[in-house]
TrEMBL record:
Gene3D superfamilies: Ribonuclease H-like superfamily/Ribonuclease H. SUPFAM superfamilies: Ribonuclease H-like (SSF53098). GO terms for molecular function: nucleic acid binding. This is Integrase catalytic domain-containing protein. GO terms for biological process: DNA integration. Residues 1-117 form the Integrase catalytic domain.
Length: 129
């Protein structure tokens, strides 16, 4: 998943001894697995885990889960996997390409990414990213 994310966003996989990418997660089973830990270690990715029972430290992903619940899951009844996949994929395209985000200066995530890739984020945004 991380390799695909790096490729999709044209982010070079980190090299060298100093981690240049930080990934913050909860303590879910996929993030405490040996495979995930080895991947982070091999590619010098710093894996920051939030303490248990502290969702406020991962507020952006918690907000995302609330939004997708309200704007996608509650709007559709899924009878089978392919139907769920279709609607969630369609929603993710909307979320990333057309839905405006107040925290991103009322741009979609892809608009924001295209505007700021390869540059420093605006100072007022740095604390939120």
């Amino acid at each position: 998943m991380l390799t695909e994310a790096f490729i999709t966003r044209n982010i070079p996989i980190p090299k060298g001894n100093n981690p240049s990418i930080i990934i913050r997660t909860d303590n879910g089973p996929q993030f405490v697995s040996k495979h995930f830990g080895e991947f982070c270690s091999n590619f010098k990715i710093y894996h920051e885990r939030i303490p248990p029972k502290s969702p406020n430290l991962n507020a952006y992903i918690e907000s995302f889960h609330s939004i997708i619940e309200r704007e996608c899951y509650q709007q559709h009844t899924f009878s089978f996997y392919e139907e769920a996949y279709y609607w969630i994929d369609k929603y993710m395209d909307f979320y990333n390409n057309r839905r405006y985000h107040g925290s991103l200066k009322y741009m979609s995530p892809n608009e924001f990414y295209e505007l700021y890739k390869g540059t420093e984020y605006p100072k007022e945004m740095a604390l939120r990213l």
